[in-house]
């Protein structure tokens, strides 16, 4: 796959983008409001694409991918401003989910937790 980037390099690129502006990073509450707005736009797009609600003819064409990208971008802004390494957070979350939820759903390989055998 071409153009593979690490989360760290993406966070650095987002930081370079933000650093060019005098205002810099907004505060956490303003960022949370922006993230909530972007998640709402994603929900609306998913509803239009997969749900029963069709778009108005006057609404701009957007995609689920575009809105998901906006959520990712704003998430990186918030992480940067709070000095959160998303790679580290991702690794910790994967460890948690693999430990906690490895048998939560029926597995394709048929494995079951040891106590169920």
TrEMBL record:
Keyword Translocase: no
Top-level taxonomic group: Bacteria
Keyword Hydrolase: yes
UniProt entry keywords in alphabetical sequence: Hydrolase
Example GO molecular function: hydrolase activity
SUPFAM superfamilies noted in UniProt: all-alpha NTP pyrophosphatases (SSF101386)
Residue spans crossing the bilayer: none
Segments forming domain NTP pyrophosphohydrolase MazG-like: 28-105
Xref: PANTHER family: NUCLEOTIDE PYROPHOSPHOHYDROLASE
Name the record gives this protein: MazG nucleotide pyrophosphohydrolase
């Amino acid at each position: 796959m071409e153009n593979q980037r690490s989360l760290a390099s993406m966070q650095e690129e987002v930081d370079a983008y933000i650093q060019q502006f005098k205002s810099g990073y907004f505060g956490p509450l303003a960022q949370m409001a922006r993230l909530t707005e972007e998640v709402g736009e994603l929900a609306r797009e998913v509803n239009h694409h997969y749900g029963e609600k069709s778009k108005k003819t006057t609404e701009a064409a957007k995609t689920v991918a575009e809105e998901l990208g906006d959520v990712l971008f704003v998430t990186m802004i918030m992480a940067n401003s709070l000095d959160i390494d998303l790679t580290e957070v991702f690794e910790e979350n994967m460890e948690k989910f693999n430990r906690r939820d490895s048998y939560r759903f029926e597995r394709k390989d048929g494995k079951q937790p040891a106590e169920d055998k």
